[in-house]
Design goal:
Chain A: Keywords: FAD, Flavoprotein. Chain A: It holds the Pfam family FAD_binding_5. Chain A: One of its GO terms (molecular function) is oxidoreductase activity. Chain A: InterPro entries: CO_DH_flav_C, CO_DH_flav_C_dom_sf, Diverse_Substr_Oxidored, FAD-bd_PCMH, FAD-bd_PCMH-like_sf, FAD-bd_PCMH_sub1, FAD-bd_PCMH_sub2, Mopterin_DH_FAD-bd. The complex is a heterodimer of chains A (326) and B (734). With 326 residues, chain A is an alpha+beta fold. Chain A is built from 13 helices and eleven strands. In chain A, the strands form three sheets. In chain A, strands 4-5-8-6-7 form a five-stranded antiparallel beta sheet. Chain A has a three-stranded parallel beta sheet with strand order 1-3-2, with helices on one face. A three-stranded antiparallel beta sheet of chain A has the order 9-10-11. In chain A, a hairpin with a 2-residue loop joins strand 10 and strand 11. The N and C termini of chain A lie far apart (52 Å). The model of chain A has no long low-confidence stretch (mean pLDDT 96). Chain B is built from 18 helices and 30 strands. Chain B has three domains: 167 residues, Aldehyde oxidase/xanthine dehydrogenase, molybdopterin binding domain (Aldehyde Oxidoreductase, domain 4, 2-Layer Sandwich), CATH 3.30.365.10; 181 residues, Aldehyde Oxidoreductase, domain 3 (Alpha-Beta Complex), CATH 3.90.1170.50; 309 residues, Aldehyde oxidase/xanthine dehydrogenase, molybdopterin binding domain (Aldehyde Oxidoreductase, domain 4, 2-Layer Sandwich), CATH 3.30.365. Chain B has a seven-stranded mixed beta sheet, sandwiched between helices. Chain B has a five-stranded mixed beta sheet with strand order 1-27-21-22-23. In chain B, strands 8-18-17-16-9 form a five-stranded mixed beta sheet, sandwiched between helices. In chain B, 25% of the residues lie in helices and 26% in strands. Chain B is globular, with a radius of gyration of 26 Å. In chain B, helix 9 packs parallel to helix 17. The chains are: A alpha+beta (326), B alpha+beta (734). Chains A and B meet through helix 13 of A and helix 4 and helix 18 of B.
Chain lengths: 326, 734
């Protein structure tokens, strides 16, 4: 671990000042500290934001505002979230372990970095870790890598579960800017595709601090979070799907699907949602949805299986969520 | 009566069953349990040693070549840095189990990615680790590193003497039923919870090292040889070991590096392997490619048996994963071919990991046996029962006690096994196919020379001391029980001290031999003490009844303290394996039965029920033995479904060197494990009539799971682990 300066901020202004000077915010530290120990991340300074008043889950009209520092455990256990946004509670509980969820925060979880094996090995070229050095995952062992939206510079995936549910729920990220303003970014637009700048995971600018995630009015319908993984717990998704679907008179009235494990960001394809709406569920419809989702999907060798796995998992989820489950 | 025995013939006396205390075999708690659970048990790295410097190993980032230069200046001025050690005595590899001499040195000659090259020593761990990452090393890289495990374009040699008997090809071609299949397994890592760690202290004459090791009597010699000291001047302390699984059988590079640094710097030095280094520079289980050929007559009796394996190791290593170890004795077949080929690869040292040989050999063999049962159309249990040979099929020697048939029947009954074999895809629950499978368990019985000292104190308490280790297996518990039984004492009146190389040399923990070997040494010491007590009481040892601190002879009862009259009696028991292993084929046996669910969409396989019935001679402690069996079955789940140490084919490094991406089973992967202990005494196994149990629970377990997957969904996979993608690829439309 490289020596670093540690400061604690007591309010948002203080935190913003320090982050503007290049300090990295730290809350639960469940990802950042590991990365610092391995010197994948080598910040000169940290700003501990745990004392900044960014906790609490509070209603705001029809919406529900989750403070940036709300722990994953608290969020998943919240009665309103369990009742009105069960897909979110389920997604959170599908990730990590009790111990990690007790420390990990809402904002930190959004900002967690890829688990690409080569990103983690500082001896290997990696454009995300060291821009311009190359991508070792291409041509290497890439079982957990992206099949959608990857670039020649990076085929890493976003590893989280919570953000996949937030995408399906069309939540919004509330951000305090360096200038003291607030801006809002839909979660669906918060994470980036790698393009030619994979070092940037998301759209946060230097000096910006996430203050909250805002859930829209409860969407109703049936909520499913399905995570396919190599073992039953404490493994990242090979493929995951968050689905929020409302039926009306035998037809799909509304549908919002998001996908984990497939891309550099939680994947949302509005064409898939649109295709489903107004239709009567059928295997043919589900196949069409999979065709649309996976149009242009590309494997890189050891992750080729993700394409059929996404197709089959989508079918399972759609059968379940449209009431057509066995 | 003496305190020593060389086991050349069966010991039919069965003395333990003649004892009166009634403590042997009881499911007693571990005396060391509360200390471990509360964190007061101190592991190697946890000793508070004054003025202790911290070292971190620097490892190679090429797979083959030369270290041309180590630029010490690149880190010398970093905060806290004390020294960069790149001494010619440093070892480049861990020692194999039982080596008793230094492993390969010459760290500047790189033979695998991750090989230790230097040690950076600093005031704090963080400073040392930071500097270790900045240390500049100049290499000259060779371009002929052999790192592709699946390439046949590497040097391959035949290991040992193949068994070739009769004509297997002909037997296969003429058989009523034949199976010819190839199974593969990937590399495994021992993945102990406690990483390898050492604190070395040098006082100018004696090197004292707290280290996490399995077999101290060999480790002392290995370390002494490596650093150039007399073994008498080296003391190792390993009272608690947080798991070894074979990877701590021999010394590993961190202990040697810490010792050299301590001697050079004149202060204590602690070195703990980083988790990545546990994967990258200690020990892997080789990947295997196993060709199985089974020929059966019309009654399902094996007439031909072939098991040939390709494994790998570094150049110069003599260890080759003994894949066919149980195939040697388990099943009949007069036409036999057993053979192991060894490929030389520039990948981290291959060595003993969790039941070397049988763990991977049995899971493949039992898959092939299931395929044979399907082909014949008989109950796979019945196929096993029809193939229990009268005598060892190659050596023509008798078996010692063997409870295979009893295990098969007891396990089948407990599990509720339905003998009439259904065809696959018979049960569906929602998205899940449900199936059942079974497999035989077998593991060769090993013994090793062992000594233990037992002292009976005037107050009627006793102490046992040996350099034997308890790696989580329950050694403290069972050695105390043996002494308590033999001396007629409450088990709480027996103090067991282990893991100090100044104590008499025990067997060490490896090859499941710890309890039968060191336990026999304790038994022999106690027998000698009993003889001396008998002499004081004017009777033969056999006439003496010891119970609850009293001695009874011909109806006369005397308190032990009155017999001892202020004296203490001390004896060292000395056990040697002798020629018994040439006269009998001795092994532990068992049977696995499991129910597995396979997701029809995603190919995820989940074990829902798992029963194991095991016969391994006398049970010394029903609780710790059951735990050992459970541990093996858990590893079996990992071997079947998740575990795979992956190497990059281009660079030769471990791709997944941590516990996030190297998937050992987690709690949710493990259902209730049902263990049946089959009562047995084996007079040819040890004077205790006990065999080893540590490794038995994994030997075949993964095969049962694979067979259940086939029964569930009709997919027969032969390349372990059976990850969701592999199963899904073979599944039909959900």
């Amino acid at each position: 671990m490289k020596p670093f300066e540690y400061n604690r901020a007591n309010d948002l202004d203080h935190a913003a000042r320090l982050t503007s000077d290049g300090a990295r915010p730290i809350a639960g530290g469940t990802n950042l500290l590991d990365l610092m120990k391995l010197e994948i991340e080598t910040p000169d300074a940290l700003v501990d934001i745990n004392r900044v008043p960014l906790g609490g889950i509070e209603p705001d009209g029809d919406e529900l505002r989750i403070g940036a520092l709300v722990t994953n455990s608290a969020c998943a256990a919240d009665e309103r979230i369990r009742r009105d946004y069960p897909v979110l509670a389920r997604a959170i509980l599908a990730g990590a372990t009790f111990q990690l969820r007790n420390k990990a925060t809402t904002a930190g979880n959004l900002c967690q970095r890829t688990r690409c094996y080569y990103f983690y090995n500082t001896e290997m070229p990696c454009n995300k870790r060291e821009p311009g050095s190359g991508c070792s995952a291409i041509g290497g062992f890439n079982r957990i890598h992206a099949v959608l939206g990857a670039s020649d510079a990076c085929i890493a995936t976003y590893p989280g579960d919570m953000a996949v549910a937030l995408c399906a729920l069309n939540a919004t990220v509330e951000i305090a800017t360096a200038e003291g303003h607030t801006r809002s970014v839909p979660v669906r637009a918060f994470h980036r595709l790698p393009d030619d700048a994979p070092e940037r995971d998301n759209v946060l600018e230097p000096g910006e601090v996430i203050t909250a995630v805002v859930l829209p009015a409860p969407p109703g319908g049936k909520h499913v979070y399905r995570k396919v993984r190599d073992r039953s717990s404490y493994a990242f998704a090979l493929v995951s799907i968050a689905a929020v679907v409302r039926m009306d008179g035998g037809a799909i009235a509304s549908a919002a699907l998001a996908f984990g494990g497939l891309a550099h960001k939680p994947w949302h394809d509005e064409r898939v949602d649109a295709l489903l709406v107004g239709e009567v569920p059928s295997d043919a419809l589900f196949d069409k949805a999979a065709d649309l989702l996976l149009d242009g999907a590309q494997g890189h060798g050891t992750n080729d299986f993700k394409i059929p796995m996404a197709r089959r998992t989508l079918k399972a989820v759609l059968r379940e969520v449209t009431g057509d489950a066995e | 009566m003496t305190g020593s025995l060389e086991m050349d013939r069966p010991d039919d006396r069965n003395r333990l069953d003649a004892m009166a205390q009634g403590v042997i075999g009881k499911p007693l708690d571990r005396p060391d349990g509360p200390a471990k659970v509360t964190g007061s048990a101190r592991y190697a790295a946890e000793y508070a040693v004054e003025n202790c410097a911290e070292g971190v190993l620097v490892t190679a980032t090429i797979s083959k070549g030369q270290v041309v230069a180590i630029d010490e200046a690149s880190v010398r001025d970093m905060p806290g840095v004390i020294a960069v050690i790149s001494d010619e005595r440093m070892v480049a590899r861990p020692a194999q189990g039982g080596a008793g001499e230094s492993p390969v040195r010459n760290v500047r000659q790189v033979e695998y990615w991750g090989q230790p090259i230097a040690l950076v020593v600093a005031e704090t761990f963080e400073q040392a680790r930071n500097a270790s990452k900045q240390l500049r090393i100049e290499y000259r890289s060779d371009d002929d590193a052999a790192i592709d495990q699946h390439s046949r374009d590497v040097p391959i040699e035949t290991h040992g003497e193949p068994t070739i008997q009769g004509n297997l090809d002909k037997a296969i071609s003429q058989a009523a039923y034949a199976v010819e299949v190839t199974y593969t397994t990937e590399c495994h890592n021992s993945a102990p919870m406690e990483p390898h760690a050492s604190i070395a202290q040098w006082d100018g004459t004696t090197l004292t090292v707290h280290s996490s090791l399995q077999m101290l009597k060999y480790n002392v010699k290995e370390l002494a040889d490596a650093v150039g000291l007399d073994p008498e001047d080296v003391r190792l302390l390993s009272p608690y070991v947080g798991g070894g699984f074979g990877s701590k059988l021999g010394i590993s590079p961190e202990g040697v590096a810490a010792s050299i640094a301590a001697m050079e710097l004149g202060r204590a030095v602690r070195v703990v392997l980083l988790r990545q280094q546990v994967f990258q520079c200690v020990m892997r289980r080789s990947e295997t490619t196993q060709r199985l050929r089974l020929a059966a007559d019309s009654d399902g009796r094996l007439v031909g048996f072939g098991h040939e394996a390709l494994v790998s190791n570094l150049p110069g290593e003599t260890f080759a994963e003994p894949v066919t170890q149980a195939s040697d004795f388990l099943y009949p077949g007069e036409n036999r071919t057993l053979r192991i080929d060894l490929a030389r690869l520039n990948l981290v040292t291959a060595g003993s990991v969790r039941a070397p040989g049988e763990a991977v050999g049995m899971q493949a063999l039992e898959g092939a046996m299931d395929e044979l049962a399907m082909k014949i159309g008989i109950d796979p249990v019945e196929l096993r029962l029809r193939n229990i040979p009268e005598r060892h099929p190659a050596k023509d020697i008798p078996y010692s006690s063997r409870k295979l048939a009893e295990c098969l029947k007891a396990g089948a009954e407990r599990f509720g096994w339905h003998g009439a074999r259904r065809s696959p895809c018979h049960t569906r629950e929602g998205e899940w196919w449900i199936g059942t499978g079974m497999a035989t368990a077998a593991r060769v019985h090993n013994l090793n020379e062992a000594e233990a000292r037992v002292t009976l104190y005037p107050d009627g308490t006793a102490a046992v001391a040996s350099d034997m280790t308890d790696i989580g297996t329950g050694t403290y518990t069972v050695l105390g029980q043996i002494a308590a039984e033999m001396l007629g004492l409450d088990r709480n009146d027996v103090l067991v001290r282990l893991g100090d190389s100044s104590f008499p040399p025990g067997a060490g923990s490896g090859g499941s031999w710890g309890a039968p070997s060191t336990g026999s040494a304790v038994f022999l010491a106690c027998e000698a003490i009993r003889t001396r007590l008998a002499a004081r009481l004017g009777c033969q040892e056999e006439e003496l009844t010891l119970q609850d601190g009293f001695a009874t002879v011909r109806g006369q009862t005397t308190a032990l303290s009155d017999v001892l009259k202020g004296d203490q009696i001390e004896e060292v028991g000395h056990f040697k394996a002798g020629e018994i292993s040439d006269k009998f084929s001795a092994a532990m046996y068992g049977a696995f039965f499991t129910e597995v669910a396979v997701n029809a969409y995603t190919g995820e396989a989940r074990v829902r029920r798992f029963t194991g019935a095991f016969g391994f001679g006398r049970v010394l402690n029903a609780k710790t033995a059951t735990s050992q069996c459970m541990g093996g079955m858990v590893w079996g789940i990992g071997s079947a479904l998740t575990e795979e140490e992956i190497f990059d084919k281009r660079y030769g490094h471990v791709v997944n060197p941590d516990l996030a991406e190297y998937h050992v089973p987690v709690n949710l992967d493990v259902p209730h494990l049902d263990v049946v202990l089959v009562d047995e005494r084996d007079p040819a196994a040890s004077p205790l009539q006990a065999k080893g149990v540590g490794e038995l629970g994994i030997c075949g377990a993964a095969g049962a799971i694979g067979n259940a997957i086939h029964d569930a969904c009709g997919v027969r996979l032969r390349s372990f682990p059976f990850t969701p993608d592999k199963i899904m690829a073979e599944l039909g439309d959900p």
